[in-house]
Every structure is written in C-alpha cells, then in structure tokens.
Amino acid sequence: MALGASAVSRLFFGRDDAEHDMAEGRLAGVFLHTYAYREALSGRKSLIIGRKGAGKSAICRQLGTPDGHSGTTVLITPDDAAGDEIRRFELQGVSSDTAKSLIWRYVFAVHAARHLYEHARAAHGWRARSSVKALHNFLEANDETGDEDLYDRLRRGTRRLQSADLSLKAFGIEAGVGLNGGSEGARASRQLEVLESGVAAALGDLGCAAAHPPLLFLVDQLEQVWTVDPDSHALVTGLLLASKQVTGLYGGAVRCTVFIRADIYDTLNFGEADKFRSDELRILWNPEELADLALTRAAAALGAAELAPEQLWGEVFPRAVSGEPTAEYLFRRMLPRPRDLIQFLNACRDVADQRGNQRIAEEDVLLATEQFSRWKLTDLAREYAVTHPFLSQLFLLFDNHGYVVMLPALETRFEPHRERLHQEFTDYADRLTVHGVVDVLFGIGFLGVKRGHKVVYSDSAQMPPQLGEEEFHVHPCFRPALGNIGPVDLTAYSPHRARAISGGSNQLVIQAGRDITLGVSRDSRLLDDVTRACERLLRQLMRADLQDDMRNEVEAQIGRVLDDTRRAREDLRGGRVVEVTRHVLSASGYFGRLAVQLGDHGVRDEPITRRLEDEARALIRSAGGAVGGGSGSDSAP
Fold first, then answer.
1. Beta strand extents in 375-523 (DSSP E only)
2. SS3 readout for 115-165
C-alpha cells in the first residue's frame, strides 16, 4: 500500500481513554483480543487488575458491546455521590467490610431482578411464572422499577437495610415476621437473603443458566471513589466479597467482573484475600503486543486494510532514532501500557505535523521524547497521589543527576530532606526512609534494580529490591524530564589548553606562564606521564566492579583526557608551543574530581577511585618537580 504524502496529517492513534474511543466509534475497530480480554470474556477470570492506562476500561467497554459478551451486561461505575453513600453505610453488629458487601449485594440483586422481569417478557412470553411476578411486585413495592442512577438506588437501599424497611411481601414475608430480631447487620442480612432467594428461584424457573448467556455485571472506575481511609478500603473489599458471592449464588446465570487499579488492589488487606487468587488476572503488555497495537491503530487511521511493520517503522516513522530501531527506541522509553503508547505516538505525529513534515523525522521523535517524558513524570505523581502523595518531592532527589544511583549515594542525597519530609508527610514517615523510598520508587516503575547483568523494572513477577542490591536505574521514560543525560553526572573533561595565533604566523604561543627554561624534553615527559596515567586507569577500569553504563561513561571521559594529550603531543612535534604544565594540572584536577563524583554515586573504597586519587597526586608531583623529574606511578600495572 502506498501511504501517500499526507500520511502524517491523516495519522491518529486514538484517544487517551477507552470511553472516548468508544464514543467516537473507534474502539471496536482497533481493539486487540488479548489474553486478558479472552479470560475475562470466558469468565475464567473475574478480577482484572492493571495500572492506570493498562487497558482495563477498554476490556470492560468491549465486553459490553454486541461483539463482546453475547448476553446482557450492566455497567456500574460509581461516582463521588455513590461512593460517599457506600462509605457512610454502616450496620450495627457487623464489620465495615460486611456492611459494604451487603449494600453491593442489594445493588446486584435489584439489577438482576429488573433484568429478569424484562428478559422473561421478551424471551419467555407474557405468561410469566409466579417467581418472576414476585420480582416485579418487589420492585414496585420498593420503588425500584425506574431506570435510575446508582446513587438513587444506593440511597434507597442503605436506608431500607438500616431500618429493616425493605418490603418483602412479594416473597410471602410480612413486615416484622421472623426477620426483625437481632442486630442491624443480622436483620439486613436476612432481608437480603430473601431477595436473593427470590432472584435465584426466577432464574431456576426460567432455566436461564442453561438457555442463555449469563447476565454480566461490569464494575469499573473504582479509583473515582478511592481514598486511603478505612471506609474506602471497606468499600472495595465489600465489593469483592459481594461479586464473588453473586457468581456462586445464582448458579452461573449471573457473573460479576471487577476492573481495579493495581495500586488500589495492592493496598487491600482482608482475611479472605486468598480466595481470590484464581480469579485474579494482572494486565501485562510485552513489546510484541504493543507493536501490534501500534500497527492496528495506524492502519485504521490511514484507511489501510493491512499495514506492514516496515511501512510504519520506515515510511511513516524513521527507521532508527539515535542509532536504535525506532520501535525499540519508543517502547524502551515508555511504561508498557497502551495509554503511554498512544500518547507517545501521537506526540511524535503532532510534532511532525506542526513542523510541516510529510513524514515523521528523527528530530520529530527526539523532540516528542522530551515532551512525553515531562508528561509522564507529572502523570506518575498524579497516578499515585492518593497512596504516595510525597512522590514529587522524591523526584527532586534525581533531578540533574545521572540515571544510575547507588544506595549509599541515595542515602547521602536523602538525608538533608528526611526531617522536612517527615514533618510534611507525618502519616507516611515509616515509608520515608532510604529503603522505604527505594521500595516505593521500584514499585511504581520509576526505578529499576540491577540483577546479574540486567536491570529489571517492577511487574507482578519481579521481587522488590533485596538486601545487598545497591544499584538502581531511573527508568528511561523519565530521564529526559530529570536531565539524566548520562549514567552518572560526571563533569566532562575540558583541558583548558589556552593557545592563540601570534604575529600573523601559524605558531601558537602561551597565554599563561610557561617555564621555557625547562625545554621541550620535559614537556614530552610530562605528556608521557599523563598518557601512561590514562592507560593505567583504563586497565583498572576494565577490572572495576561497575555497571556497564557507568563504566562506559568513565571510560569515555578518561579517553577524552588521553585523546587531548595525544593532540598536545602532536602539537609539540609540529613545532607549536603548548602550555604543558597547565595541561598536566588540568588532567590531575580532573582525575581528583572524578574520584569524588564516583564516591558521591556510591562508588567508594573501590580500586578505581583509589587509582584516580593516586594518579592525580602523581601528576601534581610530576608538574612541580625538577628538570626531568616525576614520571607518575609506573610501578602500577
């Protein structure tokens, strides 16, 4: 397929959220039937867990379409008003978790009763069975026949369960007969059991479990009602307990699937959590799935029945960025989730379009990378604002530093801020220790930990940092926003060899003092001293216990000293005048600063730092010695 000159102007990878993609009619055409979707559709998994932007809502919305779940679906997305109603709901005699589970069960039972009454008329004829009529009578008696929002249903349900005012006459239970004894919780539970038994009887009479796909409740966007208070914890825990009971209570004719953010689910601590292991599925994306998603969305935008990878990553986008294949460059600089992919690709497209380019150029991607990184650093703090409100303060510890940080260096950076952070975030003081900070930053994907020869970032399969693991890396997604240009923030070597043209000739003369009585032979020996010092340092560096990126950066800077020394030697051989003493002192001072900076990054008591200090002192002795004196530390290997 020829993409044409207008590919960039037509390109669009979609909205940031599934709700808008669905409203614009785009979701169905670009939705990938991933493993998580297939498991949710089959009912094998009913608790779908994922980070913000991982695609939970996309799965939820797709299940609710005719192309998804073939039966009836009920989407439940609590808002602030509904959340407040549930948080306030309490019953004397039962725990907060149990009370919240009862009100959720009431919501599910009423929805099921309304569905069955409509379904019986449409699928089973007008001669409804008595059990179905009983459900309709119950709905009328309790003002539940209208298609009202969740808040109104909760408001009526909480009031009636608390006051034992739920009318159960439709099921043959008169007010005050056998249900009003005991605590509020016991009475509410007995009333609810009568209602649920009525729903189960109608399902059994109609034979729905065998004849029709189940009624499917889809509960999403719980983050809209989540805070870190105990009542929010009970709200979600109660929902999980109710959803599991619904699936078991109605013989497979009703199912409930809950979509929940990982940061919320991971804070829950309740006694029956182990009963949900088989229901859990965490959404994880690999590069291959992200590449498929990018191709699918690009093809839909460009009106292509099919789009080959080499077309997207060669004709629309450049083949490579900074020497790295474009897809790998992009995927390595984002967290592995669809929202990040969509935003990053759209940012590249927007930069190219604004610059009037007909294709996305390498420079467009580089500019978009800076913008995307700033977005994501801000978004990360917002994503965890409820559970970790101190994040933006912690990010400052990594601002304008290298992206590799050793644990001792982090301790040094953190200590001046410890007291202020404890005062400002008193409730989180137990987490605001160096090891606590590392655990938090690893858990949210900001930091990776060096394990063996790899740097690993958090997912459900990775253990948190262990005792003895001391090397951490800022994720590539956040490095541009923090000014993390290299692995360590080493000062680049600058020789300061001041030279200028004099008298209209090509001879260079000294701008700072030079002891011309020492002669060229001393200058040559001094430059030899610097050369040998660099070579010894590079040999030591090969044996140093440093991570690869840090070793490469140190090697590059020592290499600059060596290259500049060789150029100075060539200048001398060509008859040009070089300020050798200043050059040697510049190299000595740089080696000393390099040792200090490595120490600041936690590389202390290592042979390489001691060698840097030794060579710095030896060069000072060489530069200040008598004629022909001082040759550095030649005895070292």
1. 404-406, 447-451, 454-456, 471-474, 499-501, 508-510
2. HHHHHHHHHHCCCCCHHHHHHHHHHHHCCCCCCCCHHHHHHHHHHHHHHCC
Residue 617's alpha-carbon distances to 36, 514, 528, 556, in angstroms, are 62, 21, 16, 21
Of the candidates 411, 465, 458, the residue with the CA atom closest to the CA atom of residue 434: 411
Encoding tokens for residue 69?
A: 């779940």
Residue 364 CA to residue 346 CA, distance in Å, equals 11
The identity of residue 7, as a single letter, is A
Give helix 338-354 / helix 287-302 axis angle, nearest 10°.
50
Q: At what angle do helices 607-624 and 580-600 cross, to 10 degrees?
A: 160
- The DSSP annotation for 231-260 comes to HHHHHHHHHHHHHHHHHHHTTTSEEEEEEE
CA distance 287 to 330: 10
Q: Within 10 A of 339 (CB to CB), how many other CB atoms are there? A: 21
Which residues face 256 on adjacent strands? 217
Distance CA 618, CA 630 (A): 8
Residues 549, 484: contact at Cβ < 8 Å?
no
Structure token pair of residue 542: 């090969």
Q: Which residues of 452-479 are buried (b: 16+ CB within 10 A; e: fewer)?
A: eeebbbbeeeeeebeeeebbbbbbbbbb
Over residues 336-351, the pLDDT tens digits come to: 999 999 999 999 999 9
Phi, psi of 473 (to 5 degrees): -125, 130
Task: Classify 33 as helix, strand or coil.
Answer: coil
Beta bridge partners of 259: 48
Q: Is the pLDDT confidence value at 477 over 60?
A: yes
Exposed (0-12), middle (13-18) or buried (19+): which is 207, by Cβ within 10 Å? exposed
d(CA 443, CA 430): 16
- Pick the closest to residue 405 from 415, 397, 416 (CA basis): 397
Mean pLDDT check: name the lowest of 315-324, 436-445, 579-588.
579-588
Question: Can you name the residues that pair with 320 across neighbouring β-strands?
Answer: 325
pLDDT digits over 543-566, tens only?
Answer: 887 777 788 889 999 999 999 999
Exposure of 110 in the CB half-sphere (CA atoms within 13 A): 29
Backbone angles phi, psi at 489, to 5 degrees: -85, 70
- The Cα–Cα gap between 166 and 151 comes to 17
Give the three-state DSSP class for 189: helix
Residue with structure tokens 């991982």? Answer: 54
One-letter amino acid of 321: V
Q: What is the 3-state secondary structure (H, E, C) of 304-366?
A: CCCCCHHHHHHHHCCCEECCEEHHHHHHHCCCCCHHHHHHHHHHHHHHHHHCCCCCCCHHHHH
pTM of the model: 0.81
**HSE-up of 183 (CA within 13 Å, CB side)?**
10
